[in-house]
Amino acid sequence: MSIPYRYCFISLLFAVTFFNGQDLQKLIGQLKEELPKTADEQRKAVIYSDLAWYYSSVSIDSALAYGKKAEKKATELGDQNLLSQIFSDLGAVYFRQNDFKNSEKFYLKSYAIRKSLNNVAGIAKLNNNLASVYQSTFQYKKAMEMYLEALSYFEKTGDEKNVNIAKLNLGLLFVDLKNPDQAISYINESIGYFERQEKTVEVSNKLCENYLNLGKAYQLKKDYSSAENYYKKSESICGTVGNKQGIAFSKRNLANLGILRKKKADSADLIKIQESKKAREEFNSKVDKESNQLEIAQSYISLKKFSEAKKILLKILPVFEKEKSEENLMSAYKLLTTVYNELRISDSANAYFQQYINMNDKLVNTSVINQSTELEKKYQTLKKDKEILESKNKLLYRNIYILSLLGLLVLGIVYYRNYQNRQKIKLQKEILHQQDLATKAVMNAEDNERKRMAIHLHDGVGQMLSATNLNLQVLEEYHDDPEGFEMVINKTRNILTDAMTEVRTLSHQIMPNMLIKNSLSNALKELIDKSNSPKLHINLNIDGLQDNLNENVQIVMFRVIQECINNTIKHAFASEIFITVKQDPQGILATFRDNGKGFDIDSSQSKSHGIGLENIKSRIEFLKGTFMLESEKAKGTTVIVKIPL
User: Fold this and answer.
1) Residue 630: strand, helix, or coil
2) How confident is the model over 295-322, as pLDDT tens digits?
3) Spatial separation of the C-alpha atoms in residues 74 and 92, rounded to whole Å
4) Which of 10, 237, 360, 605 could, after both became Cys, cross-link 208 (CB 3.0–4.6 A)?
């Protein structure tokens, strides 16, 4: 499999024009030679700013050092226009270093100055740059809003170049949103524009980036032949303009594509990876350098050299953790899971797999992806409606001009037609509004369904597996007792069978299996019977509980007790649990108490409650019930729940 870190360029509107290495060093040398000779403080500030900008293609450290000098000098001069440009340049430099926090910080500083100066064009460009930061930090909805805002401004002002840069960025965003068709549409538009321009270094550099990103979009569609073709085009054009970062990405993508297609790395792929690494070593981004090691580890895994892969992954993992490079972290966790599984070190494999799942859940938010896509659809719909409206208004004005010559009768007809058009426009707006409401309702329903499924999986299967683990822990105590050993094994098998049944029926499950087959009282008895073990005795007292309870109330009460037992087994080290469920005309009262180690609620609440208790609280609040948790170290835990009927 290919490694899921970023293959793409995000185009900044203030992007560096790529020179070949000799020309760039010559330009930097000329600026550094001029610096001590000039007595003009304004000129010094501009030179510092230019040096920061040009060094961003050569040395990030030098770029930041000159950027700080430029900031200091512009501040002393009080030149707000220059200072806003310097802040924007520093934002771009930090972006190249994958330091998105500082990148956002300096872009926002520039934004504040340009807003005070009412520099609308500059703000639009910064919107595009900030959107790139938000895209890189997985804030897709926010990125979509800002890209569309920038695109709208450039379209209004007829700035065709920046329109196509904004479209390129939208294409990249749709790559991240796993929508290759939309990505290809936007990127092809951008390519068409730059292919029509005179082939300057800047234009060729844009084509280098666009072909690379188009290749990624086709790779998402599993059209590997087209992907390879565009990666090679990108590599060729990047080579002609000396875009070493583009060359590195192209070689890396071609290598990963080869591994993906052949399911292993051959010598040609390894050569491309090494060439990519060499090209990228000229940049100072620690994350970018170390991410290259992920490819090496992937290659070792495909060659079944698991120990070598493990050494590489454990060496680079702290870098990604320190830099909070979340997508690279997710890749490293996934590869470490594979390595430890192959080395038969199950505890480490399970630990890294859990970290991978947690990171994946954090990054992959289907609701946000859908919302971002809907924003773009809404923008395009409104744009088309506006064009239709403008066309109709032009036609209307022409008709009014012509028909006004026919007198009062014609004026009456024109007025009537105008009224009809306004009614149509009003109707169109209402239809769009209703479509928007319907879309939001569908998205909310889907999100609620996903949450519900996650709750069932956690509360049902998780508790059964915890009980299984507890039973397995006592097996050794029955080593010399065949009957006891067989009893625990049978009980464990039964619990695992129920767990498999729970998973198999989860897709159409609206309540726990125990409740489908039994009443709440019988389901609780069955739960207690399965949860009891030699190390944990559970006492259940049911008083006046009716069989015809509302299904939602039964589910919530069952889940409350199930989650409390699960938490006790996992965390409390208790030997006994006391459960009382009582129904009267006012409602149902459930009391849960264990004799475990307890915990400090104030200091542990955010860590201890987790998904289980938070879901319980939200369910109880939905039913207008009350939830109370009491615990103290060494004195056990008590949970009291009351739901009105």
Assistant:
1) strand
2) 677 777 777 788 888 888 888 788 777 7
3) 18
4) 237
